[in-house]
Amino acid sequence: MAGIDLNRTSTGVKLTPEQSDEIWQDATKSSVVMQLARRVSLPGSGISFDTLGEAAPAKWVGETDEKPVINPTVGSRILKPYKMARIITVSTEFARDKATLWNAIKAQAAESVAKTVDMTFLTGAIAAPSTDGMDTLADAQAVSLGKSAYADFMKVYEKISVNGGNLNGWAMSPEGQAKILGATDANGRPLITPDVSSTTIGNVLGAPVHKSPWGHKAAVSGGSAAPEILGVAGDWSQALFGVVGGITIKASDIATVKVGEEMVSLWQRNMLGFLAEFECGFIVKNKTRFVKITA
């Protein structure tokens, strides 16, 4: 694609739908949450989703018998958007090549989105901005992968299915995928089943395995000890990822930005700063249908 028309006189730029989609497509390729959760469009104030309890089975009745009445449990969940932002700085010399500039901004923005989404909603490595209308899977029920790999993977399956869930995706870090690739059943056969028709590395217990570079969280020792997180498995039909509109970018060459503890003048250093902002949200309708996988 031709470079987006951003220059030193720009004060604010709204990306076209095509340009916004380019960034979201690149982010989706890297973010497991964005791949697996159901994407919905959000108004700025959020949106309410009605929920129903488990469906009771119908009953056999005679020709003139009274028909049974089922009163389902009704509830609702609010999905609210929150803003994430990133400032990308480049030299004015670099910015002269607009095609290179656009590709750099696109790559930086896409990776920033994917990284923040997965580290927030999968592992909690980045703290969520709020618990009001936003969930994470960091506090889902846990299963530790020990030496009995097959039995441990079956525990994951059982914990999801016993709560009415359908295991349809493994969101695994590289460390978690190493565990899966080395896992065998009771007869020593690899647990993973290759799937040549998919972009995933294969299936485990009938569900595809997706890789997230940011689906890992190191173990924490001491008073607030927590195990190493390798990934999350679950029924992803229960997860909703909401997006408000497109991505906005503002450009400036006279701003002062904070880099670490240092205030940097873009004008003094012949630099351009691009502020990319996007709003999104994430909720899980039934968190008991997910399992956090730990070491």
Automatic annotation (TrEMBL):
Top-rank lineage group of the source organism: Bacteria
Ranges where the Phage capsid-like C-terminal domain occurs: 13-294
Coiled coil: none
Taxonomic lineage of the native organism: Bacteria, Bacillati, Actinomycetota, Actinomycetes, Bifidobacteriales
Subcellular location: Virion
Protein known as: Phage capsid family protein
